[in-house]
Design a protein that fits this description.
Hypothetical Protein, Haloacid Dehalogenase-like Hydrolase, Chain: A, domain 2; alpha/beta; 8-stranded mixed sheet; Cof subfamily protein (Haloacid dehalogenase superfamily); 14 strands; Cof; Rossmann fold; 6-stranded mixed sheet; 2 domains
Length: 290
């Protein structure tokens, strides 16, 4: 019997307009009504993920920034894991040498040193996911994210890392050149203290070695006394792999990476076709709740 459901956001719970559909919302609430613990497991920062859930009238615990933070539905911190700042400084030097756009996410929010490039990157990424999106609409959305304070502009990351109050959770780099991303990953491979993964075809995410969704999900279920064999995880990309590999029921989105589909026990339809709702409804039907 499934007692916990962990759900990725981008490419999974969210459609290509970055919204939680009514059917996905209804399915999540139906699972919660049946006493199933529904937890979000995302690469996004906690505040941004929490705001998106609130807009959909949902309340869930959140595993954020690929597992570097675990919070209850009320925002209380269960576990946190920061990246060593000296290691982060060395990585920033490598990324700067490669002239690749990078953001860092911390306990004080996200930071960028180039807001114009950030907006260009967001436009490129969204257009890759949704060919019908208008650039003017995406630009307005990107500017709105800056206004909401999800990302702050700084002069350089090295000075940011020297601030004692800053805890570094995740670094994320973007490029339309996938070969360049792969080349940088190889250069970072020798740094054993980190793990490099991705949540999309055109990004690369760096966290502490133990900053993984699977490790965080294990901590979360341990607190609740739920066995991983009684847990379902739904995802689409390689930053979901660690949680998909350890649960009793793993579900890949139809729009997910082929490598992810191969390791999962089940497949659902795409994020544009309410794949999360379908996966949850199947479990509820099997357990006699629908």
């Amino acid at each position: 019997m499934i007692k916990c459901i962990a759900i990725d956001m981008d490419g999974t719970l969210l459609n290509n307009k970055m919204e939680i559909s009514p059917l996905n919302q209804q399915a999540m609430k139906a699972a919660q009504t049946q006493g199933i613990e529904v937890v979000i497991a995302t690469g996004r920062a906690y505040r941004e993920a929490a705001d998106m859930l609130k807009e959909a009238d949902l309340s869930c615990p959140i595993i954020s920034m690929n597992g570097t933070e675990v919070r209850r539905a009320d925002g209380e911190l269960i576990a946190g894991l920061s990246l060593d700042k000296k290691i982060a400084s060395n990585i920033i030097d490598i990324l700067d040498d490669e002239h690749i756009y990078t953001e860092v996410h911390t306990n004080q929010g996200g930071f960028t040193i180039d807001p114009k490039k950030r907006i260009r990157v967001i436009i490129d990424v969204y257009q890759q996911m949704n060919v019908e999106a208008k650039e003017s609409e995406i630009r307005a959305m990107a500017n709105e994210r800056l206004k909401k304070g999800y990302t702050t502009i700084v002069d350089n990351f090295h000075a940011l890392f020297q601030r004692e109050e800053i805890q570094l959770f995740k670094m994320i780099s973007f490029s339309k050149d996938r070969q360049k991303l792969k080349s940088i990953q190889k250069k970072l491979h020798s740094t054993k203290e980190i793990i490099v993964t991705s949540s999309g075809k055109f990004n690369m995410e760096i966290t502490d070695r133990n900053g993984q969704k699977g490790i965080a999900l294990k901590k979360f279920t341990d607190v609740l006394g739920i066995d991983l064999n009684e847990t379902m995880a739904i995802g689409d990309n390689y930053n979901d792999q660690s949680m998909l590999e350890i649960v009793g029921r793993s579900v890949a989105m139809e729009n997910g990476e082929q490598g992810i589909k191969k390791i999962c026990t089940h497949t659902t339809c795409t994020n544009e076709e309410d794949g999360v709702a379908k996966a949850i409804d199947e479990v509820l039907q099997e357990q006699g709740a629908l």
